[in-house]
Write a structure and sequence with these properties.
- The chain is mainly beta.
- Helix content is 10%, strand content 40%.
- Strands 1, 3, 4, 9, 14, 15, 16 and 18 form an eight-stranded antiparallel beta sheet that branches. A six-stranded antiparallel beta sheet has the order 8-17-10-11-12-13, with no helix packed on it. A two-stranded parallel ribbon has the order 2-7.
- A hairpin with a 4-residue loop joins strand 11 and strand 12.
- The termini are far apart.
């Protein structure tokens, strides 16, 4: 059956699904091929069970698990974080291909409406707000990060109650300085405390690795492939339900080596094999 005949037969809901699938296929074709996924041997901390996950096995994003609109304090709009970013989030940059989520960043100027403006770069953004959140547990992704000046893909957690801080940055890759940031924002606005750790010598752009955080009532431990990289303890450890955010994008500022330039490869993608969240409850 031709695509046109299939669309006519499917009705409104089916047509929307078909359109999303075709967009995803077209976007995936323009990207470098994803490398074989090799995240193996991982296990949650003792006593924890799987509470929520996505293996990205479908052809389109599972909307029962994810949103593509931002809804947290400090955002400039539903599709733009703030002036630290040079990129505007568009749904077509959220691509599922071969069991992999590919959050695309592209040098493709777009006229946005939320907020209004013209943006040089586009990004892929998903979050689980109002779909899933929890307090404490072990949160992990298997991912491969893109290489390039000015790129800023990230895996982070933020409160379901729309407060800020806190914020847990599990894995933020700054392509210009080739350094992975993990940390915690705590306190009360505008008196924000940042506990940050910068890890160099990793190879997030050259292979698949597990990035995780073990979060308990008095401790946060960041891990790469199950190995602890840094720990935060004390009263600043949050005790409220948080949700998952995954996004690609660009760093707009001159510090940390940004923004992108002629050497930055476009399109590129932050590739995620799975998201898994465990709980001891």
């Amino acid at each position: 059956m031709t695509v046109r005949r299939r669309a006519l037969a499917l009705g409104a809901a089916g047509l929307a699904l078909l359109a999303a699938s075709l967009t995803s296929t077209a976007q995936a074709a323009s990207l470098p091929q994803a490398t074989e996924r090799t995240c193996t041997g991982g296990a949650p901390p003792s006593g924890m069970r799987l509470r929520w996950s996505d293996e990205f096995a479908g052809r389109v994003l599972d909307r029962s698990r994810w949103n593509t609109v931002m809804d947290f304090p400090g955002r400039a709009g539903g599709h733009y974080h703030n002036t630290s970013y040079g990129s505007y989030a568009v749904d077509e940059n959220v691509v599922l291909s071969g069991g992999t989520l590919r959050l695309v960043t592209d040098n493709k100027p777009v006229v946005g409406t939320d907020p209004a403006g013209t943006y040089q770069y586009t990004e892929g953004f998903i979050s689980s707000h109002d779909k899933f959140s929890q307090t404490y547990g072990y949160w992990e992704i298997c991912a491969k990060f893109p290489a390039g000046k000015g790129l800023w893909p990230a895996f982070w957690l933020i409160p379901q109650d729309r407060s800020w801080p806190p914020e847990i940055d599990v894995a933020e890759w700054f392509g210009s300085i080739e350094s992975m940031h993990s940390g915690l924002a705590s306190g009360t606005w505008p008196d924000v405390r940042w506990d940050s750790h910068w890890a160099t010598g990793l190879a997030p752009t050259r292979g698949w690795h597990r990035y995780g955080v073990v979060w308990t009532a008095d401790r946060i431990t960041f891990t790469v492939d199950g190995v602890p990289t840094s720990t935060i303890t004390g009263d600043q450890v949050p005790d409220k339900a948080m949700y998952v955010v995954l996004n690609s994008g660009t760093w707009a500022n001159a510090d940390r080596g940004g923004p992108p330039d002629a050497t930055t490869p476009f399109p590129n993608s932050f590739d995620v094999d799975y998201v898994r969240v465990y709980s001891s409850r």
